[in-house]
Design a protein that fits this description.
Blueprint (H helix, E strand, L loop, with lengths): L4 H21 L2 E4 L5 E4 L7 E3 L5 H7 L8 E4 L2 H5 L1 H10 L7 E2 L10 H6 L4 E5 L3 H6 L2 H7 L3 E5 L5 H15 L3 H22 L9 E5 L11 E3 L3 H8 L3 E2 H5 L4 E3 L2 H6 L4 E6 L20 H12 L8 H4 L3 E5 L8 H12 L9 H12 L9 E3 L2
Parallel strand pairs: 3-4, 3-6, 4-5, 6-7, 8-10, 8-12, 12-13
Antiparallel strand pairs: 1-2, 9-11, 13-14
Pfam family, one: Peripla_BP_2
Protein name: ABC transporter substrate-binding protein
Organism: Marinomonas ushuaiensis DSM 15871
Length: about 375
């Protein structure tokens, strides 16, 4: 006995509708930090390419068990400029040695074919590279290839964009629970400083100069931050960032004579283990393999540069170094707390920043805490 075809279609219609609805319900729409609306299915994000390897800092918060298991390609900046951290992750997850090194996404030799060969589902980029991605045609090419792209920002406007970046990544990577848990912790840690700093009058606040990558190139000085990134964190910590008033952009180059003639209450240089990328560097080699002895020796050498020893900030020992990679990481609240303790030691005498950084590792990261991440001139 045969059934009427139209009858069968009617009979199956509700089931077909449910199936179609279930399939479409898996697709979500997110708005990334560039304001772009992106539709995707989190369940189908299996292969990820990172525009910067240091996005590892963020992914690690969302998957403590194996944060890079879906990463098939990246730029080698983590390996080059934070080798201490890379070796930590390599020891925990030896398979990351097989991640494809793709170089800069904006260079002429960047291979879209390789991206496609890797079956890439998602490309994660930093907001600061939006214009480059547009002008190079990268976004258009990726779109034509069916590869989803989202922009995050932990660098330009860290206090403004960290939370929405993590919320968006949590949705895209199907890790909302982990994202929300860290965000709760992040807000709590930021408020440990903001609650006190709000009471400080403008005339009480010290003038602070940040030297970005101090000593990276021994023959060049000096780069600093405007009212963004670590410059913004100085302001949030109750200081007055010198660059916020002098530089309109994200960062800029400053004539060393400015430092020698301006009134600066505090000077903070940034440092990291750049000795492998630049063997001639005189920077303070902060990071997971750093020691206090070498960090102090390097910091003293920076203070002994021609003319610097006469600066008020150096004479009063208000001369410091802080881990450069805080500038591109959700962990920047550690830098914020460190700054606040330097500016207002009495107000923050009970704030144990190192203990908080250890707790961050224990609760949220797959690697353990070690090394030195800030240093004070003795």
């Amino acid at each position: 006995m045969s059934l009427n075809c139209s009858f069968v279609k009617k009979l199956l219609a509700p089931a077909l509708l449910v199936t179609a609805f279930s399939a479409s319900a898996a697709v979500i729409e997110v708005t990334d930090i560039a304001g772009r609306k992106v539709s995707l299915d989190p369940e189908k994000i299996e292969n990820i390419v990172l525009g910067e390897g240091r996005l590892t800092y963020s992914l690690a918060l969302l998957d403590k068990s194996n944060p890079l298991k879906r990463v098939v390609g990246w730029k080698d900046d983590l390996i080059q400029y934070d080798p201490d951290a890379y070796r930590k992750y390599l020891k925990a997850f030896p398979e990351i040695a097989d991640i494809e090194n793709l170089g800069s996404p904006y260079s002429g030799d960047y291979s879209l074919e390789k991206i496609i060969t890797l079956d890439t589902d998602l490309f994660i980029l930093n907001l600061g590279n939006l214009l480059q991605a547009q002008e190079s045609g990268l976004l258009t090419k990726l779109e034509k290839a069916g590869i989803k792209v989202v922009f995050v920002d932990f660098r330009q406007r860290p206090t403004q964009n960290t939370v929405p970046s993590l919320l968006m990544l949590g949705k895209v990577l199907n890790r909302e629970k982990e994202a929300n848990e860290f965000i709760d912790y992040y807000v709590e840690q930021m408020r440990l400083v903001s609650a006190v700093v709000l009471t400080k009058k403008q005339e009480e606040r010290p003038i602070v100069f940040i030297e970005s990558a101090a000593g990276y190139d021994p023959d060049k000085c000096c780069n600093t931050f405007g009212a963004a990134n670590l410059g913004r964190l100085v302001d949030e910590a109750g200081g007055i960032n010198w660059g916020s008033r002098k530089i309109s952009g994200f960062s800029g180059k400053v004539n060393p004579e400015v430092i020698l003639t301006e009134k600066l209450d505090y000077i903070i240089g940034t440092g990291a283990n750049w000795s492998e990328a630049n063997p001639n560097t005189t920077a303070v080699l902060l990071g997971y393999e750093a020691t206090s002895e070498l960090a102090q020796e390097r910091l003293q050498a920076l203070a002994d540069r021609k003319g610097w020893s006469e600066l008020d900030a150096v004479k009063s020992k208000n001369f410091y170094s802080v881990y450069h990679q805080f500038y591109n990481s959700p962990y920047h609240f550690i830098a914020l707390q460190t700054f606040a303790k330097w500016f207002y030691p009495d107000d923050f005498k009970d704030l144990d920043t190192e203990a908080n950084f250890v707790e961050l590792h224990d609760r949220f990261l797959p690697i353990d805490y070690s090394g030195v991440f800030w240093q004070t001139l003795k």
